[in-house]
Amino acid sequence: MLKHETASEVFRATxxxxxxxxxxxxxxxxxxxQQVFIDLGLSPLANSYLKQDDLERDEHYFPxxxxxxxxxxxxxLEEWESPENIFGDYAYFSSYSTSWLSHAxxxxxxxxxxxxxxxxxxxxxxxxxxxxxxxxxxERGIPVLGIEPARNVAEVARTKGIPTRVDxxxxxxxxxxxxxxxxxxxxxxxxxxxxxPDLNDFVSGIKxxxxxxxxxxxxxPHLMRLCAECQIDTIYHEHFSYFSxxxxxxxxxxxxxxxxxxxxLPTHGGSLRIYAQHSTTGPHRISDRVEDLRTREIDAGFxxxxxxxxxxxxxxxxxxxxxxxxxxxxxxGKRVVGYGAPAKGNTLLNYCGxxxxxxxxxxxxxxxxxxxxxxGTHIPIYEPERIYATKPxxxxxxxxxxxxxxxxxxxxxRSWGAQFVVPIPEPQIVA
Length: 431
Prior knowledge:
By secondary structure, the protein is an alpha/beta fold. The protein has 15 helices and 17 strands.
């Protein structure tokens, strides 16, 4: 039982588990799911940050159990909570990461250069968040539309002059837009594919909205990197699915879309950017990178069920090593605090059973998180300036994918000898 978990919540989650979530088949091909990729135990929703008054109330915990489909090799969670409840009032704003803004700006420049995207084209971003990316198209006079399910986040985008619809994208939304005369020449989906419970509806919607010679780009964390570096914290309830290239290729092909190029990116600990077009009318030749990555994944075993079934033991090693580091620091009288309050950090901390006795507090630049507490662990979240005021010995970087940006922001901490630690795949002190 987790430290803050009540008996009633354990009973509730256990009863739900016995009943099943109602999602017994693969969300792409329908095959019955029987093989467990990893079981991370019970965990609250990763973005359900708590206020002071919430600490006295029961929290909802849900199984964080991940399966792998024996037919298409899609790695996926059971669906315990609806997307409406997860994304209705969202605390994640993309614009608080300067490195992510730089990534978005470079992407826009690349699309304009490569595909000639200009003022006569229409650009649609699905899960457009606070306009972090579309703003750079707007600067160039290119028509855009954002589609964002979180109303509070969409309002921020609108204040920037970015047309944004509050909606969950799928076939119905795409048909409505077509009836209004919209056909997109470029459709963008950054870190949204994993959040989609109905993959077939989502990809079908993309096909419906895409112009005959249009291009789709989708970015998502790469399953091969997740496995290679034991990125267990990438797993949380908002992420319904985890993709290899070979599985993504099958999903898009089933809806008449061909992946004609792929890029391997450093973002989020290792991501893919796939490029898709209509299989019948798309004008772009298939890049050699498609065959190369497909071959590398097959050679690495991602078309073999056995490759997936050895991951859980590696995750246990990650857990044991992080707990050993934190306990040793405590025994030595050292103060350890966190930087960042990302969803991925909540998975890691709850899986490891870490509480304020081992991690005193964490800080975050996002004012929407400051003054709240991490779900499950109840670790308080403060403004970054608290680090200077308290001068800890170790700073555990929870959004480790942004470690270079964060270390640069906190360079002042070296003045009293503080050391930076990343937790994945095992605790390491970084320069």
